[in-house]
Amino acid sequence: MNRFLLPLGAFALLLVVLIAGLVHAPQKGIIVSPLLGKPAPQFSLPGLLDASTPLQAQSLRGHWTLVNVWGTWCVECRAEHQTLLEIKRQGRVPIYGIDWKDDDTQARAWLAELGNPYERVGADREGRVAIDWGVYGAPESFLVNPSGTVVYKHVGALTPEIWEREFLSRLL
Amino acid sequence: MKALRSSFAALLALAAALAAPQAFAIDASPPLPDPVLEQRYLTLTHELRCMQCQNESLADSPVGLASDLRRDVREQLLAGATDEQILDLMVSRYGEFILFRPRMSARNAWLWSAPVVLTILGVLIGVRVLRDRRKRVDVIDAANEDAASSESLDA
To answer: Which residues of A touch B93 (CB under 8 A)?
Structure first.
């Protein structure tokens, strides 16, 4: 009896560790952003639609905002677009777009064709601002609170369900 | 034979070419002016993960994001940042996952100490098992001797 106690105990311990690992594993392949709980990065981008109104970190202050990183080269962004329009229709959170490494003319044509859900769009032509936001694949969406802190990040296309469950539930 | 030798030479040349990272760098931009900086650039970009194709380093990845991040490393180097500062900046944007070699922290200290702890545990268990076995052998030997001596007495 005593001979088996130690190996059995070790095995049980291993099981506990592995199960805890499985249960606590965040969604596979999703990398938790170190930005969460931190102030949004400082940035300033030229406006895509109106060159005289740049998109800046200050634009995000004073109200809840959804910062959406997109591009016309991004297939999933097209799928996401309907949800963005729906969020605009709800009118609870203004959407600020970062047009990531895109062609301005194509981007303007995209918004003219599909509708413009954005309050303001900044053109990140060289992809410098996206790097500071820790973006690694469009579309990505950040929820920023009125004091400019990043509260939540979603990688991949938004859907009405995700918007309701992960974003609206976080509004205070 | 001659053909074999020349193809062997060609293979050697290919291996040498592949071993020289600069020769096959995927950057369109020229190497950094200072060879020391260029060396640091190569080391750093091999240490950092491409977040889009996660098992490639920045140095090896052809995707746009990797080239943007390489440009960033380059610019930081030219601006005089230390290797540590550049790695810290990358971690602050993308998290520790961007490092191929994770750093030691309170959270993963147990993992780093595991090899040492397990080795000590293994040695301790090994010593105990060997000692037990020797004791048992001694007992058997003693028993055999007793038997042998009683046998000789019988005879």
So the answer is: 34-35, 131-134
The ipTM is 0.82
DSSP strands (E only) in A15-64: 44-45, 55-56
Q: Which residue of A has its CA nearest to B96?
A: A34
Residues in chain A closer than 8 A to B52 (CB atoms): 136-137
The two beta strands, A140-144 and A65-70, are antiparallel
Per-residue tokens: B108: 């993963």
**Whole-angstrom Cα distance, residue B97 to residue A26?**
14
pLDDT digits (tens, 9 = 90+) for A61-76: 999 999 999 999 999 9
A33, A127, A128 ranked by CB distance to B95: nearest: A33
**Closest Cβ opposite residue A131 in set B69, B91, B95:** B69
**C-alpha dihedral sign at A121, A127, A129, A130:** positive
Of the candidates A31, A35, A101, the beta carbon closest to that of B97 is on A31
Of all residues in chain B, the one with the smallest CA distance to A32 is: B95
Predicted confidence (pLDDT) per residue in B18-39, tens digit: 555 444 456 767 788 899 999 9
The encoded tokens of residue B100 equal: 């191929």
Q: How far is residue B148's CA from residue A109's CA, in Å, rounded to a whole number?
A: 103
Integer angstrom CA distances of residue A103 from A81, A106, B72? 18, 5, 21
Cβ-defined contact of B94 to A31 (cutoff 8 Å)? yes
**Which chain A residue is nearest to residue B69, measuring alpha carbons?**
A131
pLDDT in tens, A13-70: 999 999 988 887 766 667 789 999 999 999 999 999 998 889 999 999 999 999 999 9
Q: Is the pTM of this model over 0.90?
A: no
A127 phi and psi angles, rounded to 5 deg? 75, 20
CB contact under 8 A, B91 and A34: yes
